[in-house]
Amino acid sequence: MKHLTRFFCFLPVLWLFVGLFAVSIATATFIENNFGSASAKSLVYNARWFEILLLLGMINLTVLFLTRRLYLRSKFTIFLFHMAFLVNPDRCCYYPLHRI
User: Fold this and answer.
1) How far apart are the first and last CA of the chain?
2) Residue ranges of the domains in the chain?
């Protein structure tokens, strides 16, 4: 359990998740261009691996919020900005997880 917590407290892991997210969305864009939006949805956006990737990114971001103490009053604006990535259902990683 300690290694798992240490894994999610590591900032480069979040960058890894963001990079994988960017690559998968770029791949989905090419799939949509060549084969249509239905195939891009079924292969990438509605795929279980994509939702797991987003869930791991959300967990990592939340753990980083807590370990870096962004909830303190002096860092509240930074916390509020980054919390928008978790809460905004239109443009963030929360939206595809409605089926879980």
Assistant:
1) 24
2) 2-99
82 touches 57 (CB < 8 A): no
Nearest to 43 by CA among 22, 58, 25: 25
Tokens representing 48 are 């279980």
* CA pair distance 22, 75, nearest whole angstrom: 28
pLDDT tens for the chain, 100 residues: list them.
Answer: 677 777 767 888 888 988 999 999 999 999 999 999 899 989 998 888 988 888 888 888 888 878 878 777 887 887 777 777 666 655 555 445 455 4
> Among candidates 50, 1, 5, which has minimal Cα distance to 23?
50
